[in-house]
Design brief:
4-stranded antiparallel β-sheet; single chain; minor pseudopilin epsh fold
Length: 173
């Protein structure tokens, strides 16, 4: 029998490699100048964005406040129904906050937001305080809360018969 000699097959990854066995590095990537130009453009865009959309941020703060007030009204109505007794959602203009009777959590208002609340005379003990009362059957004394800032605004209305809370926005007029 003939003796077989092993045949060595070169590794395809090392084809064309120098004697040390390492491949030459590919010339891909970005130069330092290209990276600096891209960073400069990115910084320029980020500097211009806040001035372009500053009204949107202010509107978002007003929109968020309107959503929190509406959520507080809905919570107050739910508490009146579930507890079987009247609950009040009150406004304190002196301390600039809204809250539900019997709860520690209040909604603090941004000083830049103008607030107008229209409600039943019986729910307005003085000029600085007003409330909307919800009854165990879901109905309420009804009312309107207008939140405005910089020409934008939201109207939160509470229907007296059903207690339904609706939010209309940007211009309450």
């Amino acid at each position: 029998m003939k003796e077989r000699t092993p045949i060595s097959v070169p590794d395809p990854l090392l084809r064309g490699a120098p004697a040390g066995g390492t491949l030459p590095r590919a010339g891909g990537g970005f130069s330092l100048v290209e990276l600096l130009i891209a960073l400069t453009l990115l910084i320029g865009i980020l500097v211009l964005l806040p001035t372009r959309f500053s009204g949107g941020v202010a509107g978002a703060g007003l929109r968020g406040t309107a959503a929190r007030v509406a959520a507080g009204l809905r919570l107050t109505r739910s508490l009146a129904i579930s507890r079987g007794r009247d609950q009040r959602f009150g406004l304190d203009l002196e301390r600039r906050h809204f809250g539900t009777s019997g709860r520690d959590h209040t909604i603090v208002l941004d000083p830049a937001i103008t607030v107008k609340m229209t409600t039943a005379e019986s729910e307005r003990p003085d000029a600085a305080h007003a409330s909307i009362r919800f009854f165990p059957d879901g109905s309420s004394t009804g009312g309107r809360i207008e939140l405005t800032r910089g020409g934008r605004g939201f109207l939160i209305a509470v229907d007296w018969l059903t207690g339904r809370i609706t939010v209309r926005g940007e211009n309450p007029d």
